[in-house]
Write a structure and sequence with these properties.
It is built from four helices and 14 strands. The protein has about 300 residues and is of the alpha+beta class. It folds into two domains: about 5-160, no CATH class; about 180-225 and about 235-300, no CATH class. The strands form three sheets. A six-stranded antiparallel β-sheet has the order 3-4-8-7-6-5. Strand 5 (about 105-115) and strand 6 form a beta hairpin. The radius of gyration is 24 Å and the shape is elongated.
Length: about 300
Amino acid sequence: MICAVLVALAGVALAGAALAAENSGGSQLHANMTAARRDAARLLASLRLPGGVTRLADEPAFAKPLIGGGSGSGRFNAGDTAWWSTAESPQEIIDYVKAHRPAGSSSMGTGSSSDGRTGTTSLEVMFNWPDTGPVYNRTLTVSVVTSANGASAIAAQSKSSWIVPRASSESVPSGVLSIAISLRIGSGPQGRLHMRTSTYVVRNARQVAALVKQFDSLPTVQPGAVLACPLMLSDGPQLTIRFRGAGGQTLARSQVNVYPGPHGGSGSNSCDPIAFWIGNTAQTPLTSSTFVHRIGRLIGADIS
């Protein structure tokens, strides 16, 4: 009978690069970094391995061409790696880990790789967890690396990225008296036929204050979030929001590409974010999967 081994982690090193906190909510940033460090430790500790494995102090030399060394920590994330030797077959290890999926995780799938020069091979299984308030991109990758002579080692690497707070200086300026919401959109599946622009102006002080508060609550696109972005068309449907002060002066504005219907996800990732300017100065782009839809409901437009 195979008994389960609960993986223990002594500690996880934070990324060495310190982020500038003067305008980025220094205390909150520090709290988020601490939360990511603790979270990465919990993710690795949630791994269950079959009995008979032996913890190693460092990565085996034969694994370096495939995995490489290091803790898994980066400029915007915490993480660490643990190693074990095993006499079980790589597939048996992967099957066991899949059958004893870490608590609260979802499977991201499996993979394999090889190095033709050294004859080293690797089988991998990956897991992730939902984002929380201070952390995101929570993952655990388990690899079984096998050398040409048949020796195998297990590597487990956790990673948890911390949220970089939006700088307090990147908020809508005070003195907003009205908000002009302009939508350029047309007909057809992508809203690109017979396009026209309509504008809705919010003047009610309570509504104005609520919209400013809502906008200021949006998070920034995180610096560690990297996506392979497709080519974006700049002449498609677009939503523009102008925060206006006395005399109709534009104090700040925002712009985002939009899509007709409820499933567009406009502004929800770093490829197609919500652009933001204070005066004529561009700020860190923002992101939200719901903001565009909420604005659409306000102006009676089916966009998301």
